User: What shape does this take?
Amino acid sequence: MTSEPIDATGTNPTTTAGHVRGTARLSQRHGAEFTRIWGMGDHRPERVVTNDEICQYIDSSDEWIRERSGIVTRHQAGPDESVVDMAASAGRAAIGHAGIDPARIGAVIVATLSHPYQTPAAATLVAEAVGARGAAAFDLSAACSGYCYGISLADDMIRSGNSDFVLVIGVEKMSDFRDWTDRGTAFVFGDGAGAAVVGPSESPGIGPSVWGADGSGYDLIKQSPDWVTFRRVLDDPNSTPQDRRWPWIDMVGPSVFRWAAFKMAPIALRAVQAAGLSVADLDVFVPHQANTRIIDAIVKQLKLPEHVVVAREDIADMANTSAASVPLATTRLLREGRAKTGDVSLQFGFGAGLTWAAQVVVLP
Ligand code: UT7
Assistant: This one.
């Protein structure tokens, strides 16, 4: 069924006495001139899973996993430690670091691919848990780019006057969507959460975002199978236990590797240029923690000077935590004193979709 065509005569007839259609002038908001990250926090589940433990389920070795990915361990959330719990924990830490009243938070954005409810969003519960009841709350699906997408939105929302402060959280419980028997991914992913409070600033603290997506790579990292196919398989009396495997995050590793290692550096460079800087101006580089070899390839292509601190430790200890990886790695650098308040950091997420987002930020 098609809808009625819109009347394009251009006339605005008077409908009732004194009212002329289309003449009311509405207001739009203007917000802060600049924004910055006020505080950051993280949540790292206690349980550490070694490569040897993973190799009980797949034909692999600690040596192979370290060499090919840089991963040594990953953290795994407990059975009752949910995406919402981890996000709220990281969010509270970020609010504490920012030193603001959570009631001032106007929006909560949770970037995740592992909240186990199609609806409602995790963010509504997270807002409640951090003391931001009444704030707008929604989840953002951009996989490993999700946190940097969220920072871009928060910057826009504050500069448009839509919110005073925005809480952005990247969180994953990838262990709920890991197939322990899949050799290509069982060792790759980890659990955790990282958060940032974004607010108004007297000077520029978040550079223009360079972000995008390429749907021609949709099949390269994705949930497999989708929920509807999975239900059909469950209903099919002839399906095998193998068919009935719980949906997991599947990845065509080598294709994603080539895309990330060779196509992403120019995007990161554009974010530096968009901020009016050169790589020599950077203090810190926090790329998505997907693979040490990808980080090395991007660093080389960017020709980063020696003084730039590159986040590499989290891929070793935490593995690939998807949307959580950039805020987790940043928080770690700050905690360990390798990055400092006021440092200029290039942060960069890329992953399923395919999606990417990069921006230069001033660290809190
Ligand atoms: O977060 C979103 C973005 N994600 C990424 O950027 C991840 C990108 N991809 C990767 O990091 C890498 O592709 C992996 C670390 C996942 C895999 O490393 P790879 O070097 O691409 O391995 P491969 O799949 O090309 O396999 C190389 C060899 C193959 O053997 P042959 O054919 O050369 O004899 C595989 O069968 O290694 C074999 N192999 C393994 N061996 C031991 C594949 N998986 C394993 C394994 N253990 N787990």
Notes: Residues 83-98 form the longest helix (16 residues).
